[in-house]
Specification:
This protein has 138 residues and is mainly beta. 6% of the residues lie in helices and 37% in strands. It has one domain. The strands form two sheets. It has a five-stranded antiparallel β-sheet with strand order 6-5-4-7-8. It has a three-stranded antiparallel β-sheet with strand order 2-1-3. Bound molecules: zinc ion (ZN).
């Protein structure tokens, strides 16, 4: 089978700091500098206080599986070799949720509440994607 590239996320101007950090192996989310609320993905306005002021802050990369889905069909040919694979919603320890993939575990062993930690998968020189793998609880 010929190599078919997976689609990669568009790096919008708002998300540039996130992808800059990911290239360095760091997971960052926006923090409202008015009220301190954390948010992901990037938004112009804080949902808590409506401020437009924010900074990007590093988070631990630890969290737990909030929800997940096992993909048994390849909806894009580039993913055909990976089915079945897991799409997960990870609730970070700091609060925000992030949609990603869970790697390093058989899909039938995935459970909600499973402790996970971030790992980065380099896609190209511009993009490294945060994925998650199981970790010991605690
Ligand atoms: Zn705020």
């Amino acid at each position: 089978m010929s190599e078919i590239a997976k689609p990669v996320p568009a790096v919008t101007p708002q998300m540039v700091p996130f992808f800059d950090a990911a290239r360095q192996g760091e997971l960052k989310v926006q923090r409202c500098t008015e009220c301190g609320a954390l948010r992901f993905p990037a938004r112009e306005i804080c949902a808590e206080c409506l401020s437009r002021q924010h900074a990007w802050v590093r988070v631990s990369g630890r969290g737990e599986v909030l929800s997940f889905n096992i993909m048994h069909q390849a909806y894009h040919p580039a993913f055909a070799a990976e089915v079945p694979y897991a799409v997960v919603v990870v609730k970070l320890e700091e609060g925000p949720a992030i949609v990603s993939n869970l790697v390093g575990v058989k899909p039938d062993l995935i459970r909600c509440g499973m402790p996970v930690e971030v790992v980065f998968e380099k896609v190209n020189d511009q993009i490294s994607l945060p994925k998650f793998r199981p970790r010991a609880a605690g």
